[in-house]
Amino acid sequence: MSSLLVVAQDNNAVTFEMKLSKPKLGLNERLRVDFVMNRDGDNFNPPDFAGFKVIMGPSQSISSSWINGVRSYSKSYSYTLAPTAKGKFTIKQATIVIDGETYKSLANEIEVTAAVDKPSDQMTADDVADENLHLVAEISKTNPFLNEAITVIYKLYVSPNISVSNYQPLDNPTYNNFWSQDIKVSTLSAQNGTYKGKPYRYVILKRVVLYPQKSGELDIEPLSLDVTVDVPTVRRDFFGGRVYAQTNKTVSAGNRTINVKPLPLANQPANFSGAVGDFDFAVSTSKTSLNATESLQALVEVSGKGNLKLFKLPELELPSALEVYEPEFTEGVRTTLAGMQGKISNNYTIVPSFRGKYPIAPLSFSFFNPVTEKYTTLTSNEIVINVLEGPLSASSSSTEATNSAKQSVVANENQFNFIKLNPNLSSTSITYFFRSTSFYLWLLSPLLLIPLAILFKIKREAIAGDIAGNKIRRANKLARKYLSAAKKQLGNKESFYVALERALHNYLKAKLKIETSEFSKDKITELLIKKQVENSTIEGFIALLKNCEAARYSPFSNVQMQADYEKASEVISLMDKQL
């Protein structure tokens, strides 16, 4: 804390100021007061220091240097004071004459409290660092609903009394029972703030968005740092500069407990699949009129803000006369400090085979809004697909035949004129099936099929006996199935690694019947070891997951993406054989 008098606005301005070692001290502590000027002066006149006793002083120190042809000069008068009573005291102005002019420092107020357990002059550098360095985890909400986003921001608070020269993370939280997403801190910039009512400087070290996957009390593990701290001492060097002591301190954000509320069961829709947030829902088709064997696209889309990556989209229900392919999943989601926002969709390819009109029934999507604490159900409109040209289905043909059979015949006045009296009939020969050529061919056909059946059986047994080959074929087919979405995104880094990560997690869901969102990489490793999967395969699988995470923040080339895709195919094939 200081007071300063400036008498000019140029680089040659004269300054004369009072500097205090602290604005508040205990009755058994000491106060250092420095009167500092940037030019030499005479007739220095100190204040009377009412409420204090002078222990040492005045002592003089002078510092002078030349930097780039510019002279830097400093002279100070220093006092060490001991308070004589509790209360608030004012150290009045000091005066000095510089170049024939009299300059005065500004007065300062000091608060003296009751005696402290450990006076500052007896505190070590570690003691000072403990009092002036704090790592805090600020949590946006401590009682969220299940699958509601919360934000954790880690701030390092540093008092103006010390300085930090370096820090190193010791232990990063794993966030068990949470889905987590780090929000990258691009630059470490210090900001002014307060901690427990006192002025501090702080820097944001880490930001993370969490979605609790389990109700009840969940612990957030602490973040720990090893910090190198420079602590000023009461000693001065030859030039009057303060001597600093360096120490290393371990600081921790401490354990934090989150009380997660379960989603209410009352009024919960039957089709609720775990969506929590505020969403819009739509079902649309690329066209509603087409010919048979042509294709159309049907899009089922959810957009908005919430746990978009943590629930399943409702499945489209179509008439059996429409051929539908496996949907292509698309995800356009970004995660900020406010949580996930964007959209997800399933794109179905539909091909009608027959002429007619086919309704797509309305589809419903339900979600829980944590703001209103209510469930909302959104329902799409019915869509009718009109197939204009093409063959009739068997059911349609029989219906038309029945309708035509039911048409009445209108008779006229000559209703028997259609009977011919002379039909001119001719005789025809009757051919019997028994003992005909066709009869003997059908009789002998089973004998002809027996050799073909034997050859077919031998072939099937050979294929079935090729156990290793069958495993490889099944594993490769499974890998292609799960990695098809990732292959389509090769060249697009973010979309590729999002699809690759989803493929890896979906594979574990399908094979192990687990929700991988509840597991960290350590938990997944432990589970695969129990399933007797080889260590090299597990390491390859975990390395791919790490690459998916690292790709969000690091540049990855097309060559790297191709290599990761081939590695994923190999790992899934190997793991499927071992499981």
Structural topology:
Layout: E1 2-6, E2 15-20, E3 24-26, E4 31-37, E5 42-45, E6 52-67, E7 70-83, E8 87-91, E9 95-98, E10 101-104, E11 108-113, H1 125-132, E12 133-139, E13 150-158, E14 163-171, E15 178-183, E16 191-195, E17 198-212, E18 216-220, E19 224-236, E20 242-252, E21 256-260, E22 277-285, E23 289-290, E24 296-306, E25 322-324, E26 328-336, E27 339-352, E28 356-360, E29 364-369, E30 374-379, E31 383-387, H2 394-405, H3 437-465, H4 467-488, H5 493-512, H6 521-530, H7 535-550, H8 558-578
Parallel strand pairs: 3-11, 23-31
Antiparallel strand pairs: 1-2, 2-4, 4-7, 5-9, 6-7, 8-11, 9-10, 12-13, 13-17, 14-19, 15-17, 16-17, 18-21, 19-20, 22-24, 24-27, 25-27, 26-27, 28-31, 29-30
Helix pairs in contact: 4-5, 4-8, 5-7, 5-8, 6-7, 7-8
Shape: elongated
How would a textbook summarize the main sheet? 5 strands, antiparallel
Q: Given the helix and strand composition, which structural class is it?
A: alpha+beta
pLDDT < 50 stretches: 1-10, 397-418
Overall average residue pLDDT: 81
Q: Determine the fraction of residues in helical runs and give it as a percent range.
A: 10-25%
**What is the beta-strand fraction?**
35-45%
Organism: Maribacter hydrothermalis
Protein name: BatD protein
Pfam families: BatD
Keywords: Membrane, Transmembrane, Transmembrane helix
